[in-house]
Amino acid sequence: MKATATAHPNIALVKYWGKRDIALNLPAAGSLSVTLAGLSTTTEVCFEPHLAEDVVSLDGHQLSDERARRRVVEFLDLVRRAADVETYARVVTYNDFPTAAGLASSASGFAALAVAASSAAGLDWSPQRLSALARRGSGSAARSLFGGFVEMRPGTKPDGSDAHAKPVAPPDHWDLRCLIALTTRGEKKVGSTEGMGRTQQTSPLFQPWIETVDDDLRQTRLAIDKRDFSALGRIAERSCLRMHATAIGADPGVLYWNATTVSLIHRIRRARGDGLPCFFTIDAGPHVKVFCPAEVTDDVVDLLSDIDGVRDILTARPGPAPTLGAA
Ligand code: PMV
After folding, report:
1. By CB count within 10 A, which of 103, 128, 173, 270 is most buried?
2. pLDDT tens for residues 35-62?
3. What's the domain range around 273?
4. DSSP of 49-101, one letter per residue?
5. Does residue 138 have its Cβ closer than 6 Å to ligand 1?
6. Residue 142 falls inside a structural domain
7. Is 151 close to ligand 1, i.e. is its CB under 6 Å away?
């Protein structure tokens, strides 16, 4: 009753921001992302009969945040119920990148947990079913069940069984790089669930934002199919800025950016105007992710390193689906 899985985070090109059902964590619209190699979460799950409760550790420390622990325990409850298992589990998880800083650690975290916990509990589920399970932990985690370019379907069924991701193109379809410019250390202040909830309840821009998503998805699929970098960049920046616009329009406004985030936006746009192919995207935190074709990676790294407030740059590329077994 023990298994280990490794999963990778993903970065959305067409953003997910809003839920159609909170209890089942169903998205209000689709989204489309790239799963990233170069960053990973490895999780071991062991159901142990003598345990009196679930024991969860992250990066070598017992999880001290009770809310974060509850999220894991509730997720394990779903697996226990499906597999008819009654024992508690020991969960040991490591991220090789900063946790909870807008770097989608919840995506790789719940994808790895879905794969490891279901296997440890004896469930032999398809990636699609595991994707719908991972979604219960975090909406973006559903996308990390597949490698390469991945689309999340919002589904229409009330039980959420059709709200899962599906692959659009494999990792080697397009040799892109994703450079992650870290603009601060430490954890983000408004988590994505809270930010989304406030946006949905109070932003007059929420509904118009949701109405833009299907068109962005259709155009993004086409851009990926044709490997049209400038079209991809145009749609991805537009989706990112509209997602943040709807959040900024909440009451009180949800603003994830810092001054360095804004400097990076301007710098990337100027570089593109000067002929360097690159575009940015930003999630529920102040870091900026920059996509570029592999051959200009060094130029983009130089440009990002020059900006005041950029503390570190991580490099990732399209990566694989989760793997089961010791890393
Ligand atoms: O998976 P969650 O609930 O942490 O939400 C992720 C939201 C964004 O990262 C901002 C956008 C996305 O599509 O990943």
Report:
1. 103
2. 999 899 999 999 999 999 999 999 999 9
3. 176-318
4. TT-SS-EEEETTEE---HHHHHHHHHHHHHHHHHHT----EEEEEEESS-TTS
5. yes
6. yes
7. no
